[in-house]
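Quiz preparation item.
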């Protein structure tokens, strides 16, 4: 190690760090005067025990905006594994084009509901005054104030390949300790991506094992039991495809599992799976064997 600087190992060649950031207006307000009157009437001794709230907007457009944002966040999290514990996600370079298409589509959808909400403000205000009764006297925000409260973006940060930390003037033993902690923290983030892979693979394989064990075809007047959808196999193909992008350590074990997922389960026809008990047993054995292997993903190697 150089006396002055250390280098931080990264996965920067393979992807970037992103963060989903969302802020929006909330229409539920506390009516202080009515809250005080309620507490006095009901003899409430502590103010935090009771309060009166009013939804001044009661806007279907604002609800749709929040729903659209939630779907956008879910798609982002499906595509990008956690990168550390601070809310960052890892976006593989190989998924960048697909991610941009997904992001643009969702941004357009969210923007549509934002504009619809802002355009409806005069109607919402009139409704609040007419329907709010004695609670309809809270201050009404201006369009400019509300517009400034909307913020939705994917903040992108490169994962640097070569970052130097200058520890001039710091004792050598402190530099060595900090270098070790920095490296360990970074390596935990990398392993965390692979652990996320294992959790997603385990979830889907466990479902395959369960369905193969529970399924019983229709027998005369007895309905089929433990039925499963075609998506059971589709989900296996989907996660196998994601493993190709998420394997940022280029772990051959992860790639071996990915190939077996596609070959041994992903190629199976769901209809044949329902009709052939021997095929179900074979798929169940494969899923169980693969489950026994994915637990080691992301673990530190000695």
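Solution:
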């Amino acid at each position: 190690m150089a006396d002055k600087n250390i280098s931080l190992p990264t996965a920067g060649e393979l992807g970037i760090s992103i963060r989903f950031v969302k802020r929006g207006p909330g229409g539920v307000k506390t009516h202080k005067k009515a809250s005080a009157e309620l507490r006095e009437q009901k003899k409430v001794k502590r103010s935090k025990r009771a309060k009166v709230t009013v939804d001044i907007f009661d806007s279907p457009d604002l609800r749709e905006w929040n729903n659209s944002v939630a779907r956008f966040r879910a798609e982002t999290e499906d595509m990008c594994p956690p990168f550390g514990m601070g809310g960052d996600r890892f976006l593989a370079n190989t998924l960048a084009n697909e991610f941009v298409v997904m992001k643009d589509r969702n941004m357009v959808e969210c923007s549509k509901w934002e504009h619809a909400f802002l355009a409806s403000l005069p109607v919402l205000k009139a409704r609040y005054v007419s329907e709010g009764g004695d609670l309809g006297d809270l201050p009404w925000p201006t369009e400019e104030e509300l517009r400034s409260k909307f913020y939705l973006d994917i903040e992108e940060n490169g994962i640097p390949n070569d970052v130097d930390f200058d520890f001039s003037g710091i004792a050598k033993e402190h530099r060595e300790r900090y270098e070790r902690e920095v490296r360990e923290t970074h390596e935990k983030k990398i392993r965390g991506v692979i652990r996320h892979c294992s959790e997603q693979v385990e979830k889907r394989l466990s479902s395959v094992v369960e369905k193969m064990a529970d399924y019983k075809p229709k027998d005369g007047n007895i309905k089929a039991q433990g039925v499963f959808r075609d998506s059971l196999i589709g989900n296996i193909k989907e996660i196998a495809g994601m493993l190709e992008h998420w394997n940022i350590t280029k772990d051959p074990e992860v790639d071996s599992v990915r190939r077996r997922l596609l070959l041994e389960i992903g190629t199976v026809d769901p209809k044949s799976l329902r009709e052939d008990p021997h095929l179900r047993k074979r798929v169940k054995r494969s899923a169980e064997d693969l489950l026994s292997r994915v637990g080691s993903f992301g673990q530190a190697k000695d």
